[in-house]
Design brief:
The protein is α+β, with helices and mostly antiparallel strands. The chain has helices at residues 9-19, 53-70, 104-112, 114-117, 121-126; strands spanning 25-33, 74-80, 95-101, 127-135. It has a 4-stranded antiparallel sheet with strand order 2-3-1-4. It is globular, with a radius of gyration of 15 Å. It comes from Ulvibacter litoralis.
Length: 140
C-alpha cells in the first residue's frame, strides 16, 4: 500500500483552484501513527527519550496550536479511530482530526509560516500514513 504524508505540487494546485473562492474549509485528517516516532533527519526536534508516533503527533499539536489560533483556525475534533463501519477492512486509522480554516489562503499562510514549519517535523516523525481531505460546507 502506498503511503501519503505530504501534498504533491499537483494536489496543492488542485486544492487551491477548487477551494480558493469557497470561504471556510474543513480538513479531514486520517492518521496512522508509527509505533516508534522516527526523528532520523530531525535531530533538532528529537526528544531526549524514544517516544511513540502518537506521542510525537501530540507534540506536533502542542507546538502548532498557537499557529492554528493565529491563523484563525480551530481544531473541531480529534479522536481515536480503528476499523471502518463502511469501508475497506484493510484500512485502519489510529486517529481522526477535523480542522476548520477560514479560507484556503489562511490555510496556506499557516502551512508555509516559519513558526509552523520549525515544528512540523513532529508530524513527519509521528506518521506512518495519512489522508487529508479538504471540504466546504454544502448549504441545504
Amino acid at each position: 500500500m502506498e503511503k501519503y504524508l505530504e501534498a504533491t505540487t499537483n494536489s496543492g494546485k488542485q486544492f487551491y483552484q477548487n477551494f480558493k473562492d469557497r470561504g471556510e474549509i474543513v480538513m479531514l485528517n486520517l492518521l496512522k501513527f508509527k509505533e516508534i516516532a522516527d526523528y532520523t533527519n530531525l535531530k533538532h526536534l528529537r526528544p531526549k527519550q524514544e517516544i511513540s508516533g502518537e506521542e510525537a503527533y501530540q507534540l506536533y499539536l502542542d507546538t502548532t496550536k498557537s499557529q492554528f489560533l493565529k491563523a484563525g483556525s480551530e481544531i473541531v475534533y480529534y479522536g481515536k479511530g480503528k476499523d471502518f463501519l463502511i469501508g475497506p477492512e484493510t484500512e485502519k486509522w489510529d486517529a481522526i482530526l477535523l480542522v476548520k480554516h477560514q479560507s484556503v489562503l489562511k490555510f496556506m499562510e499557516f502551512a508555509q509560516s516559519e513558526d509552523y514549519l520549525k515544528n512540523a517535523g513532529h508530524r513527519t516523525a509521528a506518521l506512518e500514513d495519512s489522508r487529508l481531505l479538504p471540504s466546504s460546507e454544502i448549504k441545504f
